[in-house]
């Protein structure tokens, strides 16, 4: 089932998410719905706060990037085959020289900006069977993980922009929170919710 994606301005996007237990109700259904929602919105990652749940869960599938010709065939293969569910994740280390990449977010449609992140990330997480993994990822996969991880920490990619960039996009962000944006997927807008 496709779920509405929470828009910029909703307080749930600013909450530090809570760990989830193994007996979390209907978890496998929730994960399936998150993948369906992400694919329906042409995303490569989706975190639970983006569907209104302040829990430490996010899903990633980087296969849409695998057709981008700026990557080597080795990188394309890695992107094509990377689909993962992250539960109760904790980033242990971020390494390397920061690099810029143009990021967007399903909760902040029509806003894209260059964000600087470190290229290598070591993360501990549980998969959908609650098996613990500690893994290192790099490049674009690391970046998508860092972006989604930020969501469960209550951080948005716009927080990482310069003061000038933030000022330049301020009115666009305000419009998103008021529902003044044209998207082809379901969204839930905070300002509209208050008026109902």
Q: Averaging pLDDT over every residue, what do you get? A: 94
User: What's the CATH architecture?
Assistant: Alpha-Beta Complex
Number of helices: 5
Number of strands: 9
How far is the first residue's CA from the last residue's CA? 24 Å
How many strands, what sense, and barrel or not for the largest sheet? 5 strands, antiparallel
Shape: globular
- What's the structural domain tally? 1
Q: What is the CATH superfamily label?
A: Peptide deformylase
Provide the β-strand percentage band: 25-35%
Low-confidence stretches: none
Element-level helix/strand string: EHEEHEEEEEHHEH
Structural class of the helices, strands and pairings?
alpha+beta
Strand order of the largest sheet: 2-3-4-7-8
Structure description:
By secondary structure, the protein is of the alpha+beta class. The chain has a single domain, classed as Peptide Deformylase (Alpha-Beta Complex). 29% of the residues lie in helices and 29% in strands. It is built from 5 helices and 9 strands, in the order βαββαβββββααβα. The chain has a 5-stranded antiparallel sheet with strand order 2-3-4-7-8, sandwiched between helices. A two-stranded parallel ribbon has the order 1-9. Strand 5 and strand 6 form a beta hairpin. The protein is globular. 32% of the residues are buried. The model has no long low-confidence stretch (mean pLDDT 94).
């Amino acid at each position: 089932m496709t779920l509405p994606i929470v828009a910029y301005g909703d307080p749930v996007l600013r909450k530090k998410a809570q760990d989830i237990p193994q007996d979390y109700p209907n978890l496998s259904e929730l994960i399936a719905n998150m993948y369906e929602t992400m694919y329906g919105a042409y995303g490569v990652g989706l975190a639970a706060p983006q569907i209104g749940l302040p829990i430490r869960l996010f899903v990633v599938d980087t296969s849409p990037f695998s057709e981008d010709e700026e990557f080597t065939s080795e990188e394309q293969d890695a992107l094509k085959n990377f689909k993962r569910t992250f539960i109760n994740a904790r980033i242990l280390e971020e390494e390397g020289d920061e690099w810029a990449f143009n990021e967007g977010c399903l909760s902040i449609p029509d806003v894209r900006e260059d964000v600087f992140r470190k290229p290598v990330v070591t993360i501990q997480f549980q998969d959908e069977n609650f098996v613990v993994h500690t893994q290192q990822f790099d490049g674009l996969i690391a970046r998508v993980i860092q972006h989604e991880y930020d969501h469960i920490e209550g951080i948005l990619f716009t927080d990482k922009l310069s003061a000038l960039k933030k000022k330049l996009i301020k009115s666009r962000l305000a419009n998103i929170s008021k529902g003044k944006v044209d998207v082809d997927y379901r969204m839930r807008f905070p300002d509209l919710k208050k008026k109902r």
